[in-house]
Amino acid sequence: MNYLAITWDWDPEIFNIGGFSVRWYSLMFIIAFVLGLQLMKKIFTEDNISHEKMDPLFMYTFISMLIGMRLGEVFFYSWADYQDNLLQIILPFKRQEGAEMLFGLIKGYKFTGISGFASHGAAIAIPIALYFYAKKHLQKSWLFILDRMGIMVALAGFFIRMGNFFNSEIYGKQTGSSFGVIFKRAGEKLPCHPTQIYEAFSYLILFFILWRLYWKTDKKKKEGYLFGVFMIALWSLRFVIEFIKQPQVEERSQWALNTGQWLSIPLILIGVWLMFRKTSEKA
Known about the structure:
Elements: E1 5-8, E2 13-17, E3 20-23, H1 24-46, H2 54-77, H3 79-82, E4 93-101, E5 106-111, H4 119-138, H5 142-166, E6 180-183, H6 195-216, H7 225-241, H8 259-276
Parallel strand pairs: 1-6
Antiparallel strand pairs: 2-3, 4-5
Helix pairs in contact: 1-5, 2-4, 4-5, 5-6, 5-7, 6-7, 7-8
């Protein structure tokens, strides 16, 4: 008996009008950005930085995150699905027999949105974008903005993983017990580890730790330290939780470490270097 299991059958769509849907995953993204911007304003006030510099920060982060996460999914996990149809990487709809969009005006196509994202892609794209943001708009060092954005990214990770939970995706292996979540929409009949929840609340705890380090200690004066803590903690958590996740690429399921774990290792090492390197503190 699965008397300790939760059967999860939540509809990932909030509503659907004319074949176009708004999903809980998208709502989680919006909440993450709106809340992150408000908290970042508090940090900019503390650092005596004009709030006018928030608009370009939003654009640099948002665009680089979407591009990075999308290309990360394509090239790290799903290249075989896209190599013969490159347009599907960016198109929010696909051909499907019997489907229709816009209240039946467009037949043979289904609106799918842009689905399939990988956080490792964002881990590459966002820092690159922030380098140019810091140079052009902030006139401060690259590590200065990375220290502060790492706090917001940890918070965003919480909301993104909750979006994955609403989508019944990126969940874990079967627990082998009556504990767990039965992801009915994904076709599961036995309890599985809700790894999205494990990750979400791990990232939320990391956010509060980083937030406290920024406000209650002088660690923000040592450039790279907060971002180093972020990199070590987040990617170490991801590395460990990957052991109980379902393989995202079935052909690699026999690897000693999966794709996500191999990609996490260099990011953890970067964090170690940033956190423990010798550097002078900034006033």
